[in-house]
Amino acid sequence: MGSKILRQGDRYKARLEKTLTDGKVTRGEVAAILRDARDGKFKQVEAHYLSGFVALNKEKFDPVAHEKLLSFVKDEMVALAQIAGDSGLAKARKQPALTPDSLKSGAVTFKPLEGALTVNGFGMDDALQGQVGDCYLIAALASVAHTRPELLAKAIKANADGTYTVTFFERKPNQPKPTPVEITVDGTFPQRAGGRLEYGAARSKGELWPMVFEKAYAAWKGGYDAIEGGMSATALEGLTGKKPTFFPVDGALGADDIFKKLQSAFASGAAVVALSKPWEPIAQGIVGDHAYTVLGVEVRGGERLVTLRNPWGEREPGRDGRDDGVFTIPLEKFLSSFATVELAKL
């Protein structure tokens, strides 16, 4: 998550924690939380943090109030995941605005970057997240590259004039099917002194496709600040045109059902992303409130395992000697560390 979304989450987290001043959450406090959530400003980050708060502090709630809030959280999270569609501006920006933090620094400017769209094709380890909170987008790009890289190849093209055109899919409310929308951007990208990229980057030097997709998405949505925080479900639909689905990682489903759902997703050729919990506890080495690409599941030696990738391209639990962001954990650690799974069958 980036600066804006972190600040938003931290503010909401602090408000929720005020209810624990006396060590318990009363019916009156839950009623106030519900009123606040229903004021028309309840967003994905609030739903995610509220979900984590409810799960972590179950024993501190009035039982009746807990069930009422838990039901609301589940309904709201499902509603957020079952999005009406991914749509951008009526007219895309030719040059998406930088984030306020980048502008404030005075050190970030758009500069040309030489290279080719791909180096050895579209790989799940190519795209790296930078200083903007679009982990959900980078994780979605990696998941599509992992499952159906040809879809990314079809969606992007280099033009003779040095620009690039990316085709996204837009489905507005009450529109049954998404329609393609072409976004064209030039070959300049936000950089600091010495050519260090400010936002998305590529693992291989001279590879451009991750930055082109990110810049086009920002141009479509209204600027790099506009893509701070979001749902991978939204990004998956924008990238593929396929309507996403969602399920929570909670005790109500159980370990067996969650593992079967993951197995079924990969058997169907789905692109899969998981969002980690915003509250502790999570497994050491896993970043809280962060989207990860789910690369697969397996049973090895009788143990159920889940393999994931951090869109930073580094920082992972365990020590496999690579620090490339790719790691495998037991299902139990996945259940204790992640809150939701979002996927699209491709």
Walkthrough of the structure:
With 346 residues, the chain is α+β, with helices and mostly antiparallel strands. The chain folds into 3 domains: 3-81, no CATH class; 100-240, no CATH class; 245-345, Cathepsin B, Chain A, CATH 3.90.70.10. 36% of the residues lie in helices and 20% in strands. The chain contains 11 helices and 13 strands. It has helices spanning 3-17, 27-37, 44-56, 63-81, 100-105, 135-147, 149-155, 209-221, 232-240, 255-267, 331-337; strands at residues 109-112, 127-128, 156-158, 164-170, 179-185, 188-191, 201-202, 245-248, 270-276, 291-300, 303-309, 326-330, 338-345. The strands form 4 sheets. A 6-stranded antiparallel β-sheet has the order 8-13-9-10-11-12, sandwiched between helices. β10 and β11 (303-309) form a beta hairpin. α6 (135-147) packs across α7 and α6 (135-147) packs across α9. The longest helix has 19 residues, at 63-81.
